């Protein structure tokens, strides 16, 4: 369902749009008095939040790309690309990095639209059983936005009401990350209570979305009891929520089939058209191979910007079906099929790289209205049922090590990955430490290139010397610049700090 594509443009810029950004760009002072009269009006405001999520400055490129590059699975393939991208790959990011500045504003626009919907709902004089299921979408979108921000920046400005005056914006200060998480949990609990069990499409959050994100939030903050409780609640309501694992892993990344799947829980749905960068999908372009002719809907091939490291490809067992779905290790140049070992010599005037490329967003991306696949029909799955099973397994291992139940959740995911082969094998009898290592590896393969890995690295502090070798000399991608005292967080944008000194100091090391 593409409901959020029909955006009421007035509400696109309502309320605060970038913290103190109003001082220089006062586009958020409009108060729509009298607009909110029916639940439909609340939905219109929520649709603005969904619209911001598919903008180039959020999941189209600006935010999703750094999440890929900062992980240990993806690196820059074309070193002539923008330096602001390379900085994330090499951990040389400064406070004026254009990627960070670009999407900070957009995330607060999602929050602004959500706040406006929540505030406007108070003016809608209908029974709460009628309006709260709609308003709950706004609580979900606000939690979704803040959950990204707090994991990336730590302490951030927390705004839960529309802002209609400049003086308020100039006095904003940071809210402690722990308090931001408390607010996220409260929003998701409201959403879980009031959202319907199912929606017409997975691009609208149902109860399962709030329920699943509660599990992930608790997992992120190390509250394993509640993480397991929430994940188990989703699993126990599999039938009620109309959830299940998709039989064929490839269908999750086939734009013509994924709408019918029961596995996605919440998605961002690109519709194959764009108005400038509104709704334009750049992942096919960023991850596709230059001059590759094998996908006619990715005309001209991609840009070879975000490319898996060779170590990722070489360490992934060939018997795992997910590997074939996730990679392109051949391409077509001038009508001839070529292996990845000669990609650079055949495409992009030598600007590519001799490594397999990500196939999830290029292979079945639907109809492309613009070059390089930038107007695709991809559904980007923000949460899916396989992840819920892995959340339950990871959390249960922390509170009840060695349980057959936790092993069983992983084995459900692995059964599909085998696809008739004998690998990956079922797991059983692992002790707590070995299970923890295994389930994080399972998340790495199952959710590869879906912008999850960086968040796993940060929440588990996996790059610390005592916790592994994620960025060390034996890791998948050596990062000599990575600093454990700095790089688990991004810098707050320099322009925000310049406009509002209450946000100082910046995160450590910046």
TrEMBL record:
GO terms for cellular component: cell outer membrane. Residues 355-510 form the RagB/SusD domain. It holds the Pfam family SusD-like_3. It comes from the Bacteria. It is found in: Cell outer membrane. Keywords: Cell outer membrane, Membrane, Signal. Belongs to the SusD family. This is RagB/SusD family nutrient uptake outer membrane protein. It comes from Polaribacter butkevichii. The lineage of its organism: Bacteria, Pseudomonadati, Bacteroidota, Flavobacteriia, Flavobacteriales.
């Amino acid at each position: 369902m593409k409901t959020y594509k029909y955006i009421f443009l007035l509400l696109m810029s309502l309320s605060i749009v970038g913290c103190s950004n109003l001082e220089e760009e006062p586009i958020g002072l409009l108060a729509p008095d009298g607009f909110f009269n029916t639940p439909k009006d609340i939905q219109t405001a929520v649709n603005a939040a969904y619209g911001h999520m598919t903008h180039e400055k959020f999941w189209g490129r600006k935010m999703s790309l750094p999440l890929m590059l900062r992980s240990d699975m993806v690196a820059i393939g074309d070193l002539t690309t923008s330096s602001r991208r390379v900085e994330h790959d090499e951990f040389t990011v400064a406070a004026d990095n254009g990627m960070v500045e670009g999407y900070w504003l957009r995330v607060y626009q999602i929050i602004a639209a959500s706040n406006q919907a929540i505030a406007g709902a108070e003016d809608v004089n209908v029974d709460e059983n009628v309006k709260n299921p709609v308003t709950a979408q706004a609580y979900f979108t606000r939690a979704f936005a803040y959950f990204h921000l707090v994991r990336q920046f730590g302490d951030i400005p927390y705004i839960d009401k529309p802002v209609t005056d400049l003086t308020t914006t100039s006095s904003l200060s940071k809210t402690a990350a722990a308090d931001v998480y408390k607010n996220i949990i409260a929003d998701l609990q409201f959403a879980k209570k009031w959202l319907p069990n199912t929606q017409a499409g997975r691009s609208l959050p149902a109860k399962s979305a709030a329920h699943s994100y509660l599990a992930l939030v608790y997992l992120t903050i190390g509250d394993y009891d509640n993480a397991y409780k929430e994940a188990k609640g989703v699993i126990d309501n599999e039938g009620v929520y109309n959830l299940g694992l998709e039989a064929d892993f490839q269908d999750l990344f086939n734009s013509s089939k994924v709408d019918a799947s029961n596995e996605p829980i919440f998605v961002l749905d690109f519709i194959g058209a764009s108005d400038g960068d509104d709704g334009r999908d750049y992942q096919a372009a960023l991850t596709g191979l230059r001059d590759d002719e094998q996908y006619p809907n990715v005309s001209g091939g991609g840009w070879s910007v975000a490319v898996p490291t060779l170590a990722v490809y070489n360490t992934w067992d060939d018997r795992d079906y997910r590997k074939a779905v996730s990679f392109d290790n051949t391409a077509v140049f001038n009508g001839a099929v070529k292996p990845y070992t000669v990609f650079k010599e055949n495409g992009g005037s030598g600007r590519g790289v001799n490594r397999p490329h990500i196939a999830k967003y290029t292979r079945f991306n639907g109809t492309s209205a613009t070059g390089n696949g930038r107007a695709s029909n991809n559904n980007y799955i923000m949460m899916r049922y396989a992840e819920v099973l892995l959340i339950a397994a990871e959390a249960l291992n922390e509170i009840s090590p060695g349980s057959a139940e936790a092993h069983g959740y992983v084995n459900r995911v692995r059964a599909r990955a085998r696809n008739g082969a004998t690998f990956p094998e079922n797991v059983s009898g692992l002790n707590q430490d070995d299970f923890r290592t295994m389930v994080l590896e399972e998340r790495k393969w199952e959710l590869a290139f879906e912008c999850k890995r960086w968040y796993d690295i940060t929440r588990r502090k996996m790059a610390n010397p005592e916790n592994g070798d994620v960025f060390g000399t034996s890791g998948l991608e050596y990062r000599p610049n990575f600093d454990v005292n700095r790089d688990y967080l991004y810098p707050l944008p320099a322009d925000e700090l310049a406009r509002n000194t209450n946000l100082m100091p910046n995160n450590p090391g910046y």
